[in-house]
Automatic annotation (TrEMBL):
Pfam families: Phosphodiest (PF01663). It comes from Bagarius yarrelli (Goonch). The lineage of its organism: Eukaryota, Metazoa, Chordata, Craniata, Vertebrata. It comes from the Eukaryota. Keywords: Glycoprotein, Hydrolase. GO terms for biological process: nucleoside triphosphate catabolic process. CDD domains: Enpp (cd16018). This is Ectonucleotide pyrophosphatase/phosphodiesterase family member 3. The keyword Ribonucleoprotein does not apply. GO terms for molecular function: metal ion binding; nucleic acid binding; nucleoside triphosphate diphosphatase activity. Residues 362-507 form the ENPP1-3/EXOG-like endonuclease/phosphodiesterase domain.
């Protein structure tokens, strides 16, 4: 009998299982710290893993959860939950309620109270040899065309060096954060086991509590930002339920749980994954996702008069109310044109119950105004490309101009006095006001802290960056900060209670794949 690795790729459209097998089994193999790039860089040295990649379904990489460590990621893979949800927030942690510490080396690791949810070259050649022995054994048992196999890495180890780090250098390698100020993409705040202050360390660096506290200064390490390319984990799958010779886009490992439940033909427990987002990995997906039912439909805020009954403390001396407000009187054709232009993927659904809101349509944008929050739930607009291919310039914003929206009752509108008399809050528009300068309504504002545009400031506990950026050119750090806090579309939906892309023209499974695209796969240009 030839070794399995010497056989040709087999199209297992019909599984070959023993007659007493009611369901195809699933074998999950996790390889600690195996980087995704190894399947390309060292493919000739790992022929078994390379064949699994070429014959089965694989991805360029799989994103681990934060922190990119062993226990949090193993448990996320088998529960579909983020570490803040399943409770294993680190390999070593303290629970203030239990008044106990958890580590991989003490007896607490076997205590179920910690677990929430339902549950290099020579080294990788050794791993490949073991996987080869496994595949040969499955072939001898005539199970190699019956069993479904998933090979993953829980996280990746990056080469680390230790240096004496401080908070006073512009090129520092650490950034301390209060846990509520960590990027929301980490999903690393809602657990009492997460410390109040967290220090993020750049890849290739280590952080020690005091000089000499680290026991090693070489080799690999993990736990870094899970967007870091050095943290990208491997994903390979092979078996009759997986597509043949297919490479898919990267995805997050919390999506694996629903996939494994589909393979095992069982119903998944509630989890943080989006069921159906990995349907494209399977020959015949058993689950068809359904669109959620909207919990609150928009009401009406009709234009009944052109002059405001209450100015709400707002004024616009440079422009008159009647002429401007007459532009809100859109014909049916203009309403249709505005919706076609500014709601390209359909109107976002509101999944919050008893939300009292209405749609406010203008030629330049559309918003859903909340009568409870006194601000828009969302605003949608299309920015047109300037003629000639240049960026061009928008009209200047009219100074000291803010007007009451005549479509809203006075008790359903924010007053300009709220901002004029406050020293700690100001406002920002939820659409480019220069797109349609005449629509400077208080109903288009969002409340923000005063001085928000000034930039990061020093504080007693440094919780964002621990060096002052306020005297630097914004172009040097604003874009970095925005990328650091990027999120998946799915995360935005969870935070806002909205559902996007309902009329994208794609299947819901494909829409879920787009919504759950990991932030590590969104590349900066």
């Amino acid at each position: 009998m030839t070794a399995w690795v010497q056989d040709q790729c087999t199209n297992m459209s019909s599984p070959q299982c023993p007659p007493n097998f009611k369901r195809q089994p699933l074998l999950l193999i996790s390889l600690d710290g195996l980087r995704a790039e190894y399947q390309h860089t060292w493919h000739s040295l790992i022929p078994v893993l390379d064949k699994l990649r070429k014959c089965g379904t694989s991805s360029a990489f799989m994103q681990p959860v934060f922190p990119s460590k062993t226990f949090p990621n193993h448990y996320s893979i088998v529960t579909g939950l983020y570490s803040e949800s399943h409770g294993l927030v680190d390999n070593n942690m303290y629970d203030p309620v239990f008044d106990a510490s958890f580590s991989l080396s003490n007896a607490e690791k076997d205590n179920p109270r910690w677990y929430l949810g339902q549950p290099l070259i020579s080294a990788i050649q050794g791993v490949d040899t073991v996987i080869g022995q496994l595949m040969n054994g499955l072939k001898q048992l005539n199970l190699h065309e019956c069993i479904n196999i998933i090979v993953v890495a829980d996280h990746v180890d990056a080469e680390g060096l230790v240096n004496n780090l401080t908070c006073k250098r512009p090129d520092q390698k650490i950034k301390p954060y209060l846990k509520q100020h960590l990027p929301k993409r980490f999903h690393y705040a809602h657990s009492r086991r997460i410390e109040d202050v967290n220090v993020l360390v750049e890849s290739l660096w280590l952080f020690e509590r005091y000089p000499g506290s680290l026991r090693f200064c070489s080799g690999g390490n993990h736990g870094y930002d899970n967007d870091d390319p050095n943290m990208q984990a491997m994903f390979l799958s092979y078996g009759p339920k997986f597509n043949l010779q297919t490479e898919v886009e990267p995805f997050s490992n919390i999506e694996l749980y629903n996939l494994m439940c589909d393979i095992l033909e069982i119903t998944p427990a509630p989890n943080n994954g989006s069921h159906g987002s990995l349907n494209h990995l399977l020959r015949t997906p058993p689950y068809t996702p359904q669109s959620p039912v909207e919990q609150s439909v928009p009401g009406q805020c009709p234009l009944t008069h052109l002059e405001p009954t209450d100015q709400l403390g707002c004024s616009c001396p440079a422009m008159g109310d009647v002429n401007l407000n007459s532009q809100l009187n859109l014909s049916d054709t203009e309403v249709s044109q505005s919706e076609s232009k500014h709601l390209l993927f359909g109107r976002p659904l509101v999944l919050q119950s008893e939300s009292d809101y209405c749609l406010l349509l203008q030629r330049g944008f559309i918003s859903a105004y909340s009568k409870h929050l006194l601000m828009p739930l969302w605003s949608s607009f299309t920015v047109e490309k300037q003629s000639g291919g240049g960026s061009g310039s928008l009209p200047a914003l009219i100074p000291d101009c803010l007007r009451a929206d005549v479509r809203l009752q006075a008790d359903q509108s924010p007053t300009c006095n709220n901002y004029n008399n406050s020293t700690n809050i100001t406002y920002a528009f939820l659409y480019p006001p220069t797109q349609q300068a005449c629509i400077l309504f208080s109903s288009t504002l969002a409340e923000i802290p005063a001085g928000f545009q000034v930039g990061p400031k020093q504080s007693e506990i440094p919780n964002r960056r621990c060096f002052d950026l306020s005297n630097q050119d914004e172009s040097k750090w604003v874009e970095d900060l925005l990328w650091f806090h990027q999120s998946r579309v799915r995360d935005i939906e969870w935070i806002t209670g909205l559902e996007f892309f309902e009329k994208s023209g794609q299947t819901l499974a494909d829409v879920l794949r787009i919504k759950t695209q990991p932030t590590a796969a969104i590349y900066r240009k």
